[in-house]
């Protein structure tokens, strides 16, 4: 059986200017990589939170709700 590695939250520590990057519905942190690379080159700090179930098999994805994903966004922002 094929094992899919769950996407992980990505964080880059640059200067005091920070950006919170949010990928789209059913997307993953990898979708924001080019933007993150550009921010890092400009020495911005950034975070790309991984939403539970995203980038995983549909059986895992449907175990989570929009409230789970919103909680991740709120925690990343604070």
From TrEMBL:
This is Carboxylesterase. InterPro entries: AB_hydrolase_fold (IPR029058). It comes from Macrococcoides caseolyticum. It comes from the Bacteria.
């Amino acid at each position: 059986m094929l094992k899919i590695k769950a996407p992980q939250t990505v964080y880059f520590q640059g200067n005091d200017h920070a950006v919170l990057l949010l990928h789209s519905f059913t997307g993953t942190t990898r979708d924001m990589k080019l933007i993150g690379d550009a921010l890092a080159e400009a020495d911005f700090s950034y975070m790309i939170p991984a939403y539970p179930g995203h980038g995983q098999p549909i059986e895992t994805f449907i175990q989570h709700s929009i409230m789970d994903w919103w909680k991740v966004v709120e925690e990343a922002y604070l």
